[in-house]
Write a structure and sequence with these properties.
The complex is a heterodimer of chains A (201) and B (141).
Chain A: E1 5-8, E2 11-14, H1 17-26, H2 28-51, H3 87-96, H4 105-115, H5 120-123, H6 129-155, H7 168-180, E3 193-194, E4 199-200
Antiparallel strand pairs in A: 1-2, 3-4
Chain B: H1 40-51, H2 58-70, H3 77-89, H4 93-106, H5 113-128
The chains are: A mainly alpha (201), B mainly alpha (141).
């Protein structure tokens, strides 16, 4: 269904043929809006992905080794954030073995950042993901609405022709017949008809 | 121990399976589990002993802390004191600061627990030279 959104010129063409037709038929603003929104969604997700620090971004992520994770319920992960230390970090680590009162605030912060990626407030920071979700939701609602209402009102090709019994003339004759038969004369249909004055009560 | 009250009640659910045995029992007795419930003091003592191990290694510290944070409670100051001293033995300042952050997060909406803990731990923090996350400006984004 809506699995892939490919950018094609100014419009978004989706793998579903229905939408393709719909886009061509409605044209103009809808198509542009979709493409802009899709670009936004894609770039949003791209930004989200890049903001996750991939410590070993390459294909050699060894899942059999202890891995680092920023989790609120796991304060001390299996592995420190930075494994490979340069000389300044190494000397700082040496100082860490001495009294911590001798360390400056910056050194303490550096030591923390060597071992951990995000602090707890950084882990709990709010993200903008909800906007993407709600936006995507509304887009889908809109597409569905456009599809269903378009086809319903303008193209009527979804429904077969109405039975002949729905016509105005037939309905009138039907109602007259029902009144003549005195359908539900006490509480229902014929009870609403004033037979003396030949009108509805 | 800052536990929720619910945990203190013993398991009355098991009475369903034990109804037969208690059929002739006097009305006053209940069919609760006969397991001994650990008191708060025993719990605290157990954890203080765990972190007080002189040759504790980094893995044991990690395991202990992660397990402790997994419980539905905020650890007592004496347990945290023991854990911070374990960090000192392991020459790990970063983990000490992380522990303080973790217990602040554990207190959740109860904003008065963390200041109390820091107040109780102040002598230890000064002695070992551990700065709180607030001192280092790491409690804000």
């Amino acid at each position: 269904m809506w699995t892939h959104i490919l950018l094609k010129d100014k419009y978004c063409s989706v793998s579903s043929s229905l939408v393709f037709q719909m886009l061509h038929l409605t044209k103009g603003c809808v198509g542009c809006l979709l493409s802009r929104r899709a670009v936004l969604a894609l770039t949003n997700s791209g930004a989200r992905m890049s903001s996750h620090d991939h410590h070993e971004v390459s294909n050699n992520l060894d899942m059999s080794q202890p891995m680092y994770s920023d989790r609120l319920d796991t304060p001390l992960p299996d592995r420190p954030w930075k494994d490979v230390l340069d000389s300044t970090d190494k000397s700082l680590k040496q100082n860490e073995k001495g009294p911590w009162t001798a360390l400056s605030k910056e050194e303490k912060i550096t030591l923390y950042r060597l071992k951990f990626n995000h602090t707890y407030p950084e882990m709990k920071r709010p993200s903008h993901e909800w906007k993407t979700v709600i936006g995507g939701m509304f887009i889908l609602f809109g597409i569905t609405g456009l599809l269903s209402l378009n086809l319903l009102f303008f193209f009527s090709c979804v429904y077969p022709p109405q039975p002949h019994t729905f016509g105005e003339e037939w309905q009138a004759k039907q109602i007259q017949r029902m009144l003549d038969m005195r359908i539900n004369p006490i509480e229902g249909f014929s009870a609403q008809w004033d037979y003396k004055n030949k009108q509805w009560k | 121990m800052f536990r929720p009250v619910v945990r203190l009640s013993t398991s009355g659910v098991r009475s369903l399976t034990r109804t037969r045995q208690c059929y002739s029992a006097p009305l006053a007795s209940r069919c609760y589990s006969h397991a001994k419930v650990e008191t708060d003091e025993e719990f605290d003592a157990r954890w203080v002993t765990y972190f007080s191990k002189p040759d504790i290694d980094a893995w044991e510290l990690k395991k202990g802390m992660n397990t402790l944070i997994g419980y539905d409670l905020v650890p007592e100051p004496k347990i945290l004191d023991s854990a911070l001293r374990a960090c000192r033995r392991l020459n790990d300042l970063a983990s000490a600061i992380r522990i303080l952050e973790a217990v602040k997060d554990k207190s959740g909406p109860h904003k008065d627990i963390y200041p109390y803990l820091i107040q109780e731990l102040q002598p230890t923090l000064i002695e070992l030279g551990i700065s709180t996350p607030e001192d280092l400006g790491m409690d804000i984004l």
